[in-house]
Structure formats: C-alpha cells, structure tokens
TrEMBL record:
<keyword id="KW-0804">Transcription</keyword>
<keyword id="KW-0238">DNA-binding</keyword>
<dbReference type="InterPro" id="IPR001789">
    <property type="entry name" value="Sig_transdc_resp-reg_receiver"/>
</dbReference>
<feature type="modified residue" description="4-aspartylphosphate">
    <location>
        <position position="63"/>
    </location>
</feature>
<dbReference type="InterPro" id="IPR012318">
    <property type="entry name" value="HTH_CRP"/>
</dbReference>
<feature type="region of interest" description="Disordered">
    <location>
        <begin position="368"/>
        <end position="390"/>
    </location>
</feature>
<dbReference type="GO" id="GO:0003677">
    <property type="term" value="F:DNA binding"/>
</dbReference>
<keyword id="KW-0614">Plasmid</keyword>
<dbReference type="InterPro" id="IPR018490">
    <property type="entry name" value="cNMP-bd_dom_sf"/>
</dbReference>
<dbReference type="InterPro" id="IPR036390">
    <property type="entry name" value="WH_DNA-bd_sf"/>
</dbReference>
<keyword id="KW-0805">Transcription regulation</keyword>
<keyword id="KW-0597">Phosphoprotein</keyword>
<dbReference type="GO" id="GO:0006355">
    <property type="term" value="P:regulation of DNA-templated transcription"/>
</dbReference>
<feature type="domain" description="HTH crp-type">
    <location>
        <begin position="271"/>
        <end position="337"/>
    </location>
</feature>
<dbReference type="GO" id="GO:0000160">
    <property type="term" value="P:phosphorelay signal transduction system"/>
</dbReference>
<dbReference type="InterPro" id="IPR011006">
    <property type="entry name" value="CheY-like_superfamily"/>
</dbReference>
<protein>
    <submittedName>
        <fullName>Probable two-component response regulator protein</fullName>
    </submittedName>
</protein>
Length: 390
C-alpha cells in the first residue's frame, strides 16, 4: 500500500524540562512517533526564546518547577498563541494558578503511553475548539464578520485583581472574555463596594458604547483570572458599522447584562445569604464549566456584600446539605440541581432572558460557532510489529 499521503506531516513538540536525563528520554520517545522536538528548554528564558524563534509549535510539554522557577510565564505565552500544552510533573494541581487548573497533568515518572495519551487529548481539545471561538459572541459571528474583526483582536491574559475599566473614566478597550470572570463593582461615594454583575465567556465589556456612552459607572475588575480577546474602542465602533451581527449581539448582551444587574439587586435585598451564595456559585459555574471554583472567603464576602463570618456560615450550610465541598481557597460544586433549588428563584430569570435576547444559552451548550482553526496535529504511539520482529 502506498502510504505517501497517509503519513501525517511532521508534528513539532516543545519540551520544557530541566532534568537532562528526563528531557533526553522524552525527546527520544517523541522522535519514536515521528515528532520533531524543539528544545529541550531547561529554563523559562530559553523556552520563551524557542517560542519566539520557532515558526511552528503544535504542542508543548511543560515541567512545572525549573530549577526553582515556576514555568507559568511559558504557559501564559503558549495560551496567548493558542498553542496547547500539558504539564509533566511531580506536583499536584494545587500548585498551578486557577487559569491552568483544567490543563492535562501527566505524573512523573513519565510513562510513554501516558505521554502519548496526553498528546492525543491535546489534539482533541483543539478539535473541540475548532467549531468556534471560546467567547460565545465571537463564536456566533459569520465567517465574513469573523474575518473582519479577527485581525484587530489581541489576546491578553487576565490577572486577578486587574482593573479593566475605571469608574467614571473613559473606556479605551473592549474585551471578549474567553476564560475567567470579571466583576462589575459598584462603589459608593464613601468607598463601599459590592459586586453588581458578572461577565464571562458569554459576553463582552464596554456596555453603553453602542449608545454613545464612553464612560462607565463601575470598576470592572478581574475576579477569576483567565484570558480575553481585546480590541481598542475606536476599531470596535468602526467595525460594528461593517459587521451588523457583531453590533446586534453586543447590543443584546448589554441589555442582558442590565437584566442580570437588576436581579442581583433583587437577590441582595430579598434573599438570605445562603440563597445568594447558591445563586452566585451557579452564575460562576455557568461561565467556567469547571466544578472546582477558586474562590477565597474574601472574594465571596465582597461578592455578596457581607462579612466573612457570614460567608463561612453560608458555606457550612451548603456543605451540610451536600451541595458543595469547601476546601481552602476552593469551592467544589457537587449538586448543581440542588443549588438551583437552594437559590429559591433568585437564579434563572436572567439566564433565560440572556438566551431569549442572544439566541443561544449562556453556558453555550447549544452554541455552534462558525469559525475554523487549522487542523489539529495527529499523534499516535508507534505501531509495533509481531513479536520477534523489530
């Protein structure tokens, strides 16, 4: 059989590992399945240089601790460039920032089959994303409008605590959130603050711009770190004149966000702390798809506008009802349906209104994006012949 056209193109794998023996073994195993190895890079600086200098990297394998320096700046750069990666490490997930909590982990000592499986999983993750952008608004644009806005978008990392929009200041950037969550923070004249609304992958910042209002009454703060695609305001407004679908979806989201804010006010005024916490956890789950939420008591106190002792009590109630598990810095959602019942009507109307206005659900389960990405790289373990043959 002629296999000339069956053989996939050579795949390029960046290896970041500071142990020379492990790096050499890993490179040898990758070569065995026909991959080209970039590196190995023993430190962050060399890894970033390889990324800058390489015209093609299909996937990366990252050791977490590189002679005392964590690899996360490399992971951030790979994320910006939409290059999939996984961690090959002896560390647990607890050491990684929340933005990488859903990444694949392969435990050391490395098993060849586990590495091959992780490479294949990375491929499937690309294929899953091939249907569209991570941001739901961008994913629903026609191919023509995607091609119009695409060259103007810039990927950025969202850092927890970062202020994207300053209260009463002019908005300069519009952000299409891909991962993570940002909060609209209402601040009174005497400095008191409360979270008024949330934006995640379902939406876009810059509410009011399409009505001609370039100022914001809120601080827009990153609460759960992640990533976004950003565009300057002038380009955004100019492009909405050429992209009616983008304009319509952005306008509809502003309306949906206003509805969410009004129901947050209802929840704060008429529901118990436990019910409000259940609602807030459901809203975060809708925007992350990860049942493990990285939340501190301090943030939940701010989110609900109550004392930390009130948060502690509410967490104990939800945990006692087996709706969640609460561990240091994390809340694990155990029973979503139970949380909906616990929220007692405070959750559901803004979510239904979002779907009515936008034409697709907030959690994106029926979203069918129209953008495409390059074909995912193929990885497979080497084919072995019959016993006794090499």
């Amino acid at each position: 059989m002629n296999t000339t056209f069956d053989k996939p193109r050579e795949r390029v794998v960046l290896v970041v590992e500071d142990d020379y023996v492990l790096a050499s073994d890993l490179a040898s195993n990758l070569s065995e399945i026909g991959a080209k190895v970039v590196g190995p890079a023993p430190n962050v600086e060399q890894a970033l240089k390889y990324i800058d200098d390489s015209s093609q990297i299909d996937v990366a394998i990252l050791d977490i601790n590189l002679a005392g320096t964590m690899v996360f700046p490399v992971a951030d750069e790979l994320s910006k460039r939409n290059i999939p990666f996984f961690f090959a490490t002896g560390y647990s997930r607890d050491v990684v920032p929340p933005r990488f909590a859903d990444r694949i982990f392969v435990e050391k000592p490395l098993d060849k089959s586990a590495v091959y499986d992780a490479l294949s999983d990375c491929r499937r993750s690309i294929e899953k994303a091939a249907g569209g952008q991570k941001n739901l608004i961008l994913s629903m644009l026609s191919r023509r409008e995607s091609e119009i806005i695409g060259p103007h978008l810039k990927p950025v990392v969202l850092i927890q605590g970062e202020i994207l929009e300053q209260q009463f200041a002019e908005i300069t950037t519009v952000s299409f959130i891909e991962t993570g969550v940002v909060s609209l923070v209402a601040t009174s004249l005497d400095g008191r603050q409360v979270e008024a609304g949330l934006i995640g992958r379902e939406g876009v910042t810059g509410a009011g711009l399409l009505e001609g209002d370039w100022r914001t009454p809120y601080n827009l703060m990153v609460q759960i770190e992640g990533a976004a695609q950003c565009i300057d305001v002038d380009s955004f407004l100019r492009l909405t004149r050429r992209a009616p679908q983008l304009r319509s979806l952005s306008h509809s989201f502003s309306r949906a966000l206003g509805i969410q804010i009004s129901y947050t006010a209802l929840a704060n005024g008429r529901y118990s702390i436990e019910q409000r916490l259940a609602r807030s956890l459901l809203m975060l789950l809708d925007r992350t798809d990860n049942p493990v939420l990285h939340l501190t008591h301090e943030y939940m106190s701010f989110m609900l506008g109550v004392r930390r002792s009130g948060v502690t009590g509410a967490l104990h109630v939800l945990e006692g009802e087996k709706l969640i598990r609460s561990v240091r810095g994390k809340v694990v959602i155990v029973d979503r349906a139970g949380l909906i019942l616990k929220a007692h009507g405070s959750y559901g109307i803004p979510e239904a209104e979002y779907e009515r206005l936008m034409g697709f659900p907030l959690n994106g389960t029926r979203s069918a994006g129209k953008n495409t990405v390059n074909q995912a790289p193929d990885f497979a373990p080497p084919i072995r012949g019959p016993k006794g043959r090499h």
